[in-house]
Write a structure and sequence with these properties.
The protein is mainly α. The protein has a domain of 80 residues: Winged helix-like DNA-binding domain superfamily/Winged helix DNA-binding domain (Arc Repressor Mutant, subunit A), CATH 1.10.10.10. Helices cover 60% and strands 11% of the residues. Strands 1-3-2 form a three-stranded antiparallel β-sheet. Strand 2 and strand 3 form a beta hairpin. The two termini are 50 Å apart. 13% of the residues are buried.
Length: 131
Amino acid sequence: MTEAAEERLDEVAGAVADPVRRRILVLLRDGPLPAGEVAERFAISRPAVSRHLRVLRRSGLVRAELVGRQRLYTLDPGPFGELVAWLGPFVRPSGWEHRLDALETEVYRTRRERRTTTDAAPGVPGEESTG
């Protein structure tokens, strides 16, 4: 991972680390909202909500567009991709994924054992042993 990519990842992880910012992201998941409507849904001051929106904008998770006299905020899920890619190796597969992984492992083990048996058994080269 390049240094620039790591910095972007740090910004995205830092942005979603705060519970208020996560709630804002959830609100914007349903569609764009003006800053005033976002602020109305929190018990904190409007300037505090504005600071959270600024952090989300800098991380690239939120875009702001001036529509008339209102600033309209829109969720941009693109930067989540890098965070998800980084987190992926830490998550163990569950349910069917886990079972399919176990089946794949068993298929590879069986093939390897057949090859080993075939290589060790005397016979015509290229023919597989049935024993």
